[in-house]
Amino acid sequence: MFPFTYTKAADTRAAVAAGQRGGRFIAGGTTLVDLMRETVERPDTVVDISGLPLGEITTTRSGGVRIGALVRMSDAAADRRVRNTFPVISQALELSASAQLRNMATIGGNIMQRTRCTYFRDVSAACNKRAPGSGCAALEGFNRSHAILGGSSQCVATHPSDVAVAFAALEASVHLLGPDGERGVPFTEFLLRPGNTPEREHALRPGELITAVEIPAHPRPLRSGYLKVRDRQSYEFALTSAAVALHLGGGVVRAAKVAAGGVGTVPWKLTAVEQRLLGERPSDRLWTAAAAVAADDAEPLAHNEFKVELLKRTVERQLRVVGGTR
Amino acid sequence: MNGERRTVTVDNRTSLLDLVREHFGLTGTKKGCDAGACGACTVLVDGHRVNGCLTLAVRLDGAEVITIEGLSRDELHPLQQAFIDQDAFQCGFCTPGQIMSGVGCIRERHTGSASEIREWMSGNICRCGCYVKIVKAVQQAAKGR
Ligand SMILES: Cc1cc2nc3c(=O)[nH]c(=O)nc-3n(C[C@H](O)[C@H](O)[C@H](O)COP(=O)(O)OP(=O)(O)OC[C@H]3O[C@@H](n4cnc5c(N)ncnc54)[C@H](O)[C@@H]3O)c2cc1C
Ligand code: FES
Ligand code: FES
Fold this sequence. Notes:
By secondary structure, chain A is of the alpha+beta class. Chain A has helices at 12-20, 32-37, 73-78, 80-85, 87-94, 99-104, 107-112, 118-121, 137-140, 163-169, 187-190, 271-277, 284-291, 306-323, and strands at residues 5-8, 24-26, 45-48, 57-59, 65-68, 173-178, 181-186, 209-215, 223-229, 240-249, 252-261, 268-269. Chain A folds into two domains: 1-50, Uridine Diphospho-n-acetylenolpyruvylglucosamine Reductase, domain 2 (2-Layer Sandwich); 54-326, 2-Layer Sandwich (Uridine Diphospho-n-acetylenolpyruvylglucosamine Reductase, domain 3), CATH 3.30.465.10.
């Protein structure tokens, strides 16, 4: 680990000012400390934001839920309002990492976590994300865990977060505080596809602090859930995952919110699947037909062709779990 | 630190794991991966189980840390006794982390069934494969709670 200066932000304003000067925020530290030890991250200044008042979960006036950036993953998952309104969020969190890590890690840090691509984590490997212009070792290397959606000739690393998949499905927004005040960014525009600038991963401007993630109200009753498929049963990142939320009324699907994880360079909103579901009568045939379009844009690599079929089956199964067998 | 007030000056790169092992000489807590991926370094900070390897020591000003050495005073902690009764270890390397994690798991009340315990103890890897008996040990200690 390279030496750094450690400071504690007294308030959000001071944090933003420190961030503008190039300081790196530390929340739970479970991504940052790990990557600093690997020397992937080399911040000069680490700004501890854990004392800031961003640890609240509130219900919004319209009936949505606002989760403060510093809420621990474990607390967000256990929260009664989150569990009751959006079980898909609680499930995605409880299927993430380990109990110990969830006790440390925060919601803001979670959506900002860096890819688990082994070439990104290995400073001796070529990686355009870590060292722009150096190439991408994954393209010709071992790319079994990499993205089949949203990749570019520069980078095919997946975004590893689970709860971000639920946030993408539910059309959440990210609340930010910067030098010029507050703003909100739709979650699906917050994380960026690699394109020609894989080192640019998110919409944050210099100094900007995530203050909260807000999930809007959805028609009720909303059934939702998260399915994660992985190489081992627990304490492992997703090969594929599906976040599904459905509102059924009058015998048809009135609202469908679907996204996939483990397959995209960003959490992947499955708009085509949602469209296929709307207005249709729930049935096993519908689940199969909708899931069939989940991987239409997929561009698999040498070692992850299996994700194409796995993604469709993951989505189909979770549609059936949430929507019911008929 | 284990009920004692300790003041130290350390390089700000020092992890909580290195603090307890190298500076306080408490070598019960183990370093398996140093990357959050094995749980051997599990300790309690302010009552919650966390990974010592990913915790910067400088962030713990005023915090209460309990390691395996501080879990109980005169008698063994019920979960330590349960690990012996159930023969829940072989080499013992993962055991301090398993026990600290198990204490957290019991406090969090995730001991309703064997599968619930397995899931909520999955943050602790045992290379000797003592999982079946570790689950039994946690069940035994949870019963006496
Ligand atoms: C072994 C292991 C397994 C894991 N498995 C999973 C898994 O299965 N699923 C999953 O989703 N995750 C998994 N994770 C990742 C884990 O969830 C993240 O490391 C964690 O959520 C990051 O949160 P943090 O608060 O610790 O972030 P930190 O490490 O503190 O910060 C991460 C990044 O976010 C920035 N940041 C933090 N807070 C803010 C803020 N408020 N505003 C702006 N920037 C901010 C920091 O500057 C830093 O760049 C795993 C991690 C490990 C080590
Ligand atoms: S040493 Fe901390 S998790 Fe492995
Ligand atoms: S007892 Fe040997 S690693 Fe668990």
